[in-house]
Design goal:
The protein has helices spanning 30-33, 36-54, 61-82, 86-108, 110-129, 140-168, 184-190, 194-208, 235-257, 262-276, 278-292, 337-356, 391-396; strands at residues 218-221, 224-227, 302-307, 315-321, 326-332, 364-368, 373-375, 382-383. The radius of gyration is 28 Å and the shape is elongated. The strands form two sheets. Strands 3, 4, 5, 6, 7 and 8 form a six-stranded antiparallel beta sheet that branches. It has a two-stranded antiparallel ribbon with strand order 1-2. Helix 3 (61-82) runs antiparallel to helix 9 (235-257), helix 4 runs parallel beside helix 9 and helix 9 (235-257) packs antiparallel against helix 10. 34% of the residues are buried. It starts with 29 loop residues before the first helix and ends in a 10-residue tail after the last helix. By secondary structure, the chain is α+β, with helices and mostly antiparallel strands. It folds into two domains: 30-292, no CATH class; 302-386, no CATH class. 54% of the residues lie in helices and 9% in strands. Strand 4 and strand 5 form a beta hairpin. InterPro entries: DUF5677.
């Protein structure tokens, strides 16, 4: 936020009203803006990954654990890209890089594979060592059973963890803090992946909360520094590019290392096909992103009339603050009562058309210039999108939203 306000203020020409968009549709549906070929590959990839994972059931130990990690994250990445969720895609893509390095590490060393497998006892012990503050949220029976379960987890981990520490602890590198004998970068370098590590570091900015992790959510403009809430569509192409590349490489490694399985090969080809559609993902993200940055300050707070039913006299007044995108039940100011009394007649035709278009779950709302309202004492502010009419409902009524800013 700056003095200019939130990045989600209304955009468009002077005829456009400032009703908030539906909170579940903050930007155009990313998936359906993509080319049909790209959509087809995105839809096919999770299924092929699932099929391929079933055919790797003969794999045991550390490799099987890592395969489970990566095939799950692969499905998640596809869904995140299809939704245009750049920040989540960045987190998942960097995880896939780690899975790829981990797989190469355990394939190359039985000892490292044993360390990886034993690390599950570290996690179990840590769960057992947590402060059980949440037990107070449960009732007596649930609390007792959950306490017993957690104690059992810790108890079961104690002996195998002690054995793992006795085997793997080294001076200055306790096993509990170092699953592998080398750090991620050194292991990536050993596998010839040091160049890929730089992309991993960029994507890690989101996880660590680095200033650079706000790549597509912060911008300097004539309006000041704008921080946007919503999808990072500048980070998305980078996350998709490297995430799908690493996923394709991982799947190909699994195919070669654990048998010539046709389904795994096909999964690798499907992922490679998604990677081939990356330019479309990039173009679509850039086009939508360009629509989401404001080019003017938000409007000032004002009055909104909500018409509850086809009788335009059924009005409730709200105070709308576009900067924070909230509405509060309000009363007409004494000096505006004459103007407010004219509103039902002025909008009677539009109200009738709105309700004639079908059953309405929300009132018809319109921002009214020339009427001052005062937020009602003690009234709670509500998200504007929970009250104001989404534009798609205006469109169904064949009434231009732009006609309704009085």
């Amino acid at each position: 936020m700056t003095e200019a306000g939130s990045a989600f203020w209304g955009r468009g020409g002077a005829a456009e009203t400032y009703e908030s968009a539906d909170p579940h549709e903050p930007f155009p549906d990313f998936f359906h803006e993509l080319d049909s070929d790209t959509r087809e590959f995105l839809q096919a990839t999770p299924e092929w990954l699932a099929i391929a994972s079933h055919h790797l059931s003969a794999v045991e130990g550390a490799p099987r654990m890592i395969l489970s990690h990566c095939f799950n994250d692969g499905q998640i990445l596809v869904n995140q890209v299809a939704q245009g969720d750049g920040r989540s895609a960045a987190r998942t893509a960097r995880s896939i890089f780690e899975h790829q390095v981990n797989l190469g590490t355990v394939i190359g060393s039985t000892s490292e594979a044993d360390r990886y497998t034993a690390s599950r006892h570290v996690t179990a012990a840590r769960i057992g060592d947590l402060r059980y503050w949440w037990l107070e949220l449960l009732d007596g029976t649930e609390r007792r059973k959950e306490k017993q379960r957690l104690d059992k987890v810790k108890r079961r981990a104690r002996q195998p963890l002690a054995a793992a520490k006795a085997r793997f602890d080294r001076r200055g590198r306790p096993f509990e803090k170092n699953v592998f004998t080398k750090n991620l970068y050194d292991r990536a370098r050993d596998l010839g992946m040091q160049d890929e590590y730089e992309a991993y570091r960029v994507l890690s900015g989101v996880v660590h909360g680095d200033a650079g992790g706000l790549l597509g959510l912060s911008r300097n403009s004539s309006l000041g520094t704008i921080h946007r809430l919503g999808p990072d569509l500048q980070l998305l192409p980078l996350a998709a590019l490297y995430g799908f590349r690493w996923l394709a490489d991982f799947t190909l490694t699994a195919h070669h290392e654990f048998g010539e399985l046709p389904t795994v090969k096909t999964a690798s080809e499907v992922v490679a096909g998604v990677l081939g559609r990356w330019p479309d993902i990039r173009r679509t993200a850039a086009a939508i992103d360009a629509q989401m940055w404001p080019d003017k300050p938000p409007p000032q707070p004002g009055a909104v009339a909500a018409f509850y039913g086809p009788d335009s006299a059924q009005i409730r007044w709200y105070h709308h603050d576009p900067k924070f995108d909230v509405v509060t039940v309000a009363d007409v100011a004494p000096g505006s009562r004459d103007e407010a009394d004219k509103v039902p007649e002025r909008f009677a035709e539009h109200v009738a058309a709105y309700y004639a278009a079908g059953d309405r779950e929300r009132p018809m709302t319109v921002r009214v210039v020339g009427v001052n309202v005062i937020p009602r004492s003690g009234a709670r502010p509500w998200p504007a999108a929970s009250v104001l009419t989404p534009r798609r409902m205006w469109e169904k009524a064949d009434v231009s939203a732009g006609e309704h800013e009085a």
